[in-house]
């Protein structure tokens, strides 16, 4: 590529972009797709550049937050390189009309890439919505049933519980099983479940972000006309999923696939069109499906970011490969906990431990504050457990590198050696 022209009107800014962009990553992995028409950016780095690579990378922490959460570094860099002038359009994605051809190409590619990642069949609509997963707690019953209809909720954590409570306003939900009395440490055997034969849907939270309980297999509704509905907010795109087992999947983006502000809904098309009369237009899935998620102004930049993440996941080899990496990361962290002779403890039943959110406690709970402080000094942040459960929680979503988990494990062993 030609070197940046310093005579270009925006040269100083570009130089800056060039520096922060190029210097963050080893040269071979720098995305160089900057296709600005007015100038191009050199991707060759000097020795001095390499020094900057180190210092810039050191500025980033390992962020174990549950969401908003860490995003893939190369995605951030690509977004940075395209921020000011997307593909030579002369504007950033944030400034584009959502109805123009440029944004349409972005949302269409995001949808197509998500469809290939999850192998989503044509008879399912993919919607990019707002309002978070919390809004879907209401939208799901409003769209899938009439006011008096029965629906089942299998509650394995506080998100499932919140979804159930919201559904009470719009239909007749029943908790067919709750792990609350045991502090949400397991998923029940599906054989013994008392499913309602008339339930319009069975709702699960595929991965309970706070308690770290993840379904490894899925129950089947006993009503042949009923459907399985899953909140996949915190394990979306972390592994392959057979979408055809579900009538509807929803997921807030801010854990695995993008920034907050986007909520993705995947819904079987034959379920659309029966929303309750009181359904606000913004919660009516059919309206969004009929308008390709462009009924009103969508969260354009967030959708663009999700698109970059989907592209990145495909480049990694798709969700089979992503799952292997996640399995490895979770494995070494759970092993470290289990082999600590009780110094650390994860209360969740082994067979349903989450690959994404790893909650653990310290035997000596008085050391928790020090653990967090010391970890932060080592640039490992957001390890505090959710306020409702305490302890620690390491969220190790797709974008958490193996190096981050290895560093955490080494730190935990070291901390134990000092305090055992
Ligand atoms: N469901 C799950 C599993 C979650 O983890 C969260 C957020 N942490 C929500 C629902 C609520 O999502 P939002 O804040 O996007 O409404």
TrEMBL record:
Is ATP-binding there in the keyword field? Answer: no
> What is the official name of this protein in its record?
phosphoserine transaminase
Keyword Metal-binding belongs to the record? no
Catalyzed chemical reaction(s) = O-phospho-L-serine + 2-oxoglutarate = 3-phosphooxypyruvate + L-glutamate
Any idea which UniProt keywords this protein has? Amino-acid biosynthesis, Aminotransferase, Pyridoxal phosphate, Serine biosynthesis, Transferase
Cofactor(s) needed by this chain = pyridoxal 5'-phosphate
Instruction: Describe which pathway this protein belongs to, using the record's wording.
Output: Amino-acid biosynthesis; L-serine biosynthesis; L-serine from 3-phospho-D-glycerate: step 2/3
Family the entry assigns:
Belongs to the class-V pyridoxal-phosphate-dependent aminotransferase family. SerC subfamily.
Q: Which InterPro entries match?
A: Aminotrans_V_dom (IPR000192), Pser_aminoTfrase (IPR022278), PyrdxlP-dep_Trfase (IPR015424), PyrdxlP-dep_Trfase_major (IPR015421), PyrdxlP-dep_Trfase_small (IPR015422)
**Source species taxonomy:** Eukaryota, Viridiplantae, Streptophyta, Embryophyta, Tracheophyta
**What HAMAP family does the annotation carry?**
SerC_aminotrans_5
Q: What is its EC number?
A: 2.6.1.52
The record ties this protein, via Gene3D superfamilies, to:
Aspartate Aminotransferase, domain 1, Type I PLP-dependent aspartate aminotransferase-like (Major domain)
A Pfam family annotated for this chain is Aminotran_5
The record places domain Aminotransferase class V at 61-408
């Amino acid at each position: 590529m030609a070197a940046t022209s310093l005579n270009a009107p925006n040269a100083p800014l570009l130089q800056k972009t060039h520096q922060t962009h190029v210097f963050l990553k080893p040269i071979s992995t720098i995305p160089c797709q900057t296709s600005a028409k007015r100038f191009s950016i050199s991707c060759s780095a000097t020795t001095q550049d390499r020094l900057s690579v180190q210092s810039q990378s050191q500025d980033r922490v390992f962020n174990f937050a549950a969401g908003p959460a860490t995003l893939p570094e190369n995605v951030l860099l690509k977004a940075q390189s395209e921020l000011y002038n997307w593909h030579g359009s002369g504007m950033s994605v944030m400034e584009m009309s959502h109805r123009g051809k440029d944004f349409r190409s972005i949302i269409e590619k995001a949808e197509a890439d998500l469809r290939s990642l999850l192998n989503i069949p044509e008879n399912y609509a993919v919607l990019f919505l707002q309002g978070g997963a919390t809004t879907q707690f209401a939208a799901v019953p409003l769209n899938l049933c009439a006011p008096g209809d029965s629906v089942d909720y299998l509650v394995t954590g506080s998100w499932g519980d919140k979804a159930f409570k919201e559904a009470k306003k719009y239909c007749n939900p029943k908790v067919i099983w709750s792990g609350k009395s045991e502090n949400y440490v397991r998923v029940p055997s599906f054989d013994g479940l008392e499913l309602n034969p008339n339930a319009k849907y069975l709702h699960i939270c595929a991965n309970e972000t706070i308690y770290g309980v993840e379904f490894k297999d899925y129950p089947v509704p006993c009503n042949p006309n009923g459907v399985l509905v899953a909140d996949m907010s915190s394990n979306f795109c972390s592994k392959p999923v057979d979408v055809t087992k579900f009538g509807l999947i929803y997921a807030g983006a801010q854990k695995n696939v993008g920034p907050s502000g986007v909520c993705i809904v995947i819904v079987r098309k034959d379920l659309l069109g029966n929303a309750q009369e009181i359904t606000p237009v913004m919660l009516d899935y059919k309206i969004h499906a009929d308008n390709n998620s462009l009924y009103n102004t969508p969260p354009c930049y967030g959708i663009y970011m999700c698109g970059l993440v989907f592209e990145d996941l495909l480049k990694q080899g798709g969700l089979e490969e992503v799952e292997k990496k996640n399995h490895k990361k979770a494995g070494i962290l759970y092993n470290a906990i289990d082999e600590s002779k009780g110094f650390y403890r994860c209360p969740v039943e082994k067979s349903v431990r989450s690959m994404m959110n790893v909650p653990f406690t310290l035997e000596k709970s008085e050391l928790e504050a020090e653990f967090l402080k010391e970890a932060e000094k080592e640039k490992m942040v957001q390890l505090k457990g959710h306020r409702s459960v305490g302890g620690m929680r390491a969220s190790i979503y797709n974008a958490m590198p193996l190096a981050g988990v290895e560093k955490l494990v080494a730190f935990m062993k070291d901390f134990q050696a000092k305090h055992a």
